[in-house]
Amino acid sequence: MIYLSSFKLSDKKVNNPNIYPYNVFRGKYIDAFVFSPITVLYGNNGSGKSTILNIIANCLKIKGKEYATSNSYGIVDYCGSFSAECLYSLGEDDDGRQLKIPENSRYIKSEDILYEIKKIQQKQILSEGMEYDYVKKGMSLTDARKYLASREGSKQESYILFAQEKYSNGETSLHYFKEYLQPDALYLLDEPEVSLSPANQVLLAEEINKLARLLQCQFIIATHSPFMLGTLHAKIYNLDTKDYEVSKWSDLDNVRYFYDFFKKHENEFT
């Protein structure tokens, strides 16, 4: 399923070369991204892949979006201006009718996963996380705190803490994705491989393939993991190139680095 068909970043130029997010894409020649059921934004640190996901999330008003703040240059809302200058088109159903972005769509950041892991390590963070979850579901902060202080709330907190302690960081990450990745949705995933072993990265990628193929999901994923890149049935944009060209996973620098490294040590595996 393709809910988001294309997305064109703003090509407006500003005089100050340091203004975010304009500075991230300065000097690039970027056509519109044309999305597949699974699309990967590949790039090394600082390439802008996370910025693009957040801009898309803001433009589409997807859960999990973060409103970034620009550099302190006057009172201009540069982030808001940049997002407003972007263009996008939605997909169509079999009858040619324009699709809507499903309400259960979500932008999941690596920080979200790390925060989930922190809940295991600190009871206070667990309590704050539960408060946040209840408020997000419509409960007032006061009522959420009263519930957690009650016998039933304390019992629920103890149950979650006990359950989470049985899992490693990587297992917690997998459980996080199993909870949030549901059918019929658009998902923006920022480095989902965080805390996952290579084997679990492959498992997650295979699950994403299945959700896209069978359960009407669309994914736009920022990653430079060779295990994710080699497993996903994805269209890959290489953000390390000047024109963000579409590339084969085996041609990407990060993947070639792994290949060269193991090739150099080949004799040690005999």
From TrEMBL:
Alphabetical list of CDD domains matching this protein: ABC_ATPase (cd00267)
Limits of the AAA+ ATPase domain: 35-242
One Pfam family cited in the UniProt record for this chain: AAA_21
PANTHER family according to UniProt: ATP/GTP PHOSPHATASE (PTHR43581), EXCINUCLEASE ATPASE SUBUNIT (PTHR43581:SF2)
Record protein name field: AAA family ATPase
